[in-house]
Amino acid sequence: MAIPVPAQTRAAPATPTPLERFNTAHPEEAARTLLTCLNSRAWAHRLAAHRPYPDLPALLAAADEASYDLTPDELAEALATETLPTLPEDTYAAAHTALGAATAAYESRFGHVFVICLDGLSPDETLNHVLAAIRSRLNNDPDEERLVAAEELRNLAGTRLSNALRGAGL
Fold this sequence. Notes:
This protein is mostly helical.
């Protein structure tokens, strides 16, 4: 004879974590999530194909490794959809003008948008950091800048992926 268990003592079904949802999502859904972090189909499909990941650090390490394997065409694909960093709302007009001129020069020289990861910077530091970085990177030769841009994309992808799997994107 079964003894009934009172409702208050039954374990509630566990809510899956964002990583668990990612690990069990349909491959195309997982790839779509990854494409919001870095717009490279090869990168996204590689990471989706290697699921499940035991934890977020393992996924971030795999994402980082996969980004190192991007071909020049795949890097160009990822760069094509990036946008300029957002400046704080109270940034004065002259700064927008200076940034506009610098980004135009950058895009003319390298053929893609300027990318930079601004994690950990306060809004007060953003403008100066972006302007200093773009001016410095304009001195790079195209091969050197491709490496720098790829590193910035890796950093951006890691941040976006962390944010997505901490609940903001899945």
